[in-house]
Amino acid sequence: MKKLFPIVAFITVALISMTMAGFAYFATQEAARIKFEAAADDALNRIESRIDLHLSLLRSTQALFDARNGDISQNEFKAFFNALDVDNNFAGLRGIGFLRLAKAGDEAAIERDILHDHGGSHPVYPDTTQPWRAPIVLFEPLDPSNQTSIGYDMFTEPVRREAIEKAMSDDQQHASGLVQLGQGTGAAQTFTGFLVFVRLNVETAPDVINASRSSTAGFLYAAFRARDLFQIALSRSPLLPVNTEIYDGAADGDNLLFRSETPPASSFGDRLLVTRKIMVAGRPWTVLFRPTSAFSQPSSRAIPVMLGLFGLLLASAIALVARYQERAYEAASRLHETTEKSLIEKDLMLQEMKHRIKNSITRVLAIARQTASRATDVNEFSSSFSARLQAMAASQDMLTRSRWQKADLGDLLRIELGQVFGKELPEGMLSGPEVLLDETTTQALGLTFHELATNALKYGEAGNSVGALKVDWSLEGRGSERTLVLNWRETGQKKLEAPANTGFGTKLIDLNVTRELRGTIKRDFQANGLNVEIRIPLTS
Questions:
Q1: What is residue 405's three-state secondary structure?
Q2: Which pLDDT belongs to residue 426?
Q3: pTM above 0.85, yes or no
Q4: Is 273 helix (H, G, I), strand (E, B) or coil?
């Protein structure tokens, strides 16, 4: 059995190393997926924000018409549109228009209004058998290429008609399916896009139709050039390494609204494909994201390979050492024949060697596990590991110097804040009496101060001037009823607001204070900064 020990050791360590290399590989793949999903969600937020901005323009136009009871002339509508500076603020918007809703047979009244506003004859077209007519009577920008759109009845086109009929039933915005803008109006150039409709004067539509401008029902609509709209949304710096495809409804080639010019990286295939469903003005869209060649994985694929090779080398070294151990044991057995004393000495030497080998194996495997589970590359491992060791060691160093008895609150604050801000703290920044903390309180408050200081550096004025931060503390009560009251005050020009979502750092602070130390914490977000009050009971 002893002769087989080198082989068994080699196989065991090799299997462990290969298993760890496999875990490292899958961890690398999972990290890449998480990183790309974050990039895809960022791209989706940009798209949704851009669409919301454009739809808000439609809402403001609706408010203008409602305030004037629909009595808006062509010149007034043009002045309102020009004031919006659409080219600079709303790229991708082809224009905004107004449709007059009328029953079939009432076209003459609409044509008279068009003649009055535009100074020229624009008949309602094309002919239709539909019971309703919804011609364009106002549109901006009304350049020469769009003149022929005046009088065009959108109710005659099925895709537009579907959205208009939905807009008839409520006060919500309703998007159309994919359309060719300019098609049917004789425009020289068409664009792939979509329309969004919202009704006006709903109290008279669709049962009562009056030819007077102030009460005739109709629809405001916005026309969007899909390519321009989405390219502007996705071209904001920093550029994202994503290829984007947007479909009206299901992800089908006939429904394609937009596809990024930068192609997806073929090396990833569909392994990192991210699919998102969104609603735009009541219409479902499907958005697909794929990584481009600019996407870099968070950790190198070489790490699992290096880890596997290292494990094989380690297994070989252990087998070799075990072989030498076996030979040494045989030599000790032969020496036993000469003298019992020599045998005892050799046996002790072998036991010590075995002990050291096992300890070495344990340490090497522990380091390998940490590398496999945390490292993205060698440089990041080195820098992040060193920083974490320094942060963790700060509070423990204080306890070590006091033989794990007590640590001073003021010294703890100076060390933690100094590490975060990387500079000497100004006089008067910290004030309060001497307070000695036990081991548990020191560890919990050390992490709490580190998180508060990091947030102040990122979001507060303290990132520009350390003097914007003041920390003071006091003691209330006596004996076993003492309570530490600590006030953390951040002031400056920045207006801090309560975050919509609770981050990990905030949860960590709350858990340390409320559960670990059985205290309370209150945050007061003000116009000129943030006040945090922490109250912690102190044991005698």
A1: coil
A2: 84
A3: no
A4: coil
Q: Can you say how many angstroms the Cα of residue 237 is from the centroid of all Cα atoms in its chain?
A: 15
Name the CATH superfamily, with its identifier, for domain 68-230.
Answer: CHASE domain (3.30.450.350)
The kind and range of the H/E element at 2 are none
Closest by Cα among 168, 164, 161 to 128 = 161
CATH architecture assigned to 379-537: 2-Layer Sandwich (3.30)
Q: How confident is the model at residue 358, as a pLDDT?
A: 45
Pairing of strands 179-181, 174-175: unpaired
Task: Specify the pLDDT at position 340.
Answer: 67
Q: Taking residues 143-164, report their average pLDDT.
A: 89
Q: Which residue has the higher pLDDT, 159 or 202?
A: 159
Q: Alpha-carbon distance 38 to 42, whole Å?
A: 6
What element of type H or E holds 313? helix 302-336
Asked if 98 contacts 228 with a C-beta cutoff of 8 angstroms, the reply is no
Q: Residue 530 half-sphere exposure, CB side, CA atoms within 13 Å?
A: 22
User: In the structure, what pLDDT confidence band is assigned to residue 500 with cuts at 50, 70 and 90?
Assistant: confident
CA angle 32, 35, 39 (to 5 degrees): 130
* Angle at CA of residue 409, ends 404 and 411, nearest 5°: 85
3-class SS of residue 535:
strand
Q: Which of 220-234, 267-281, 341-355 has the lowest mean pLDDT?
A: 341-355
Helix (H) or strand (E) holding 285: strand 283-291
Query: What is the arithmetic mean of pLDDT over 181-195?
Result: 75
Count the Cβ atoms, other than its own, within 10 Å of residue 345.
13
Q: Which residue intervals of 375-503 are DSSP H helices?
A: 378-401, 409-421, 439-459
Read out DSSP for 169-233? HSSS-EE---EEETTTTT-S--EEEEEEEEEE-TTTTTT---SSTTT--EEEEEEEEHHHHHHHH
| Cβ atoms 172, 203 nearer than 8 A | no
Q: How many Å apart are CA 239 and CA 262, to the nearest integer?
A: 11
Alpha-carbon distance 451 to 466, whole Å?
16
Give the end-to-end CA distance of the chain in Å, rounded to a whole number: 61
- Whether the predicted pLDDT of 43 surpasses 90: yes
SS3 of 369-382: the string is HHHHHHCCCHHHHH
**With contact defined as beta carbons under 8 Å apart, do 96 and 61 qualify?**
yes
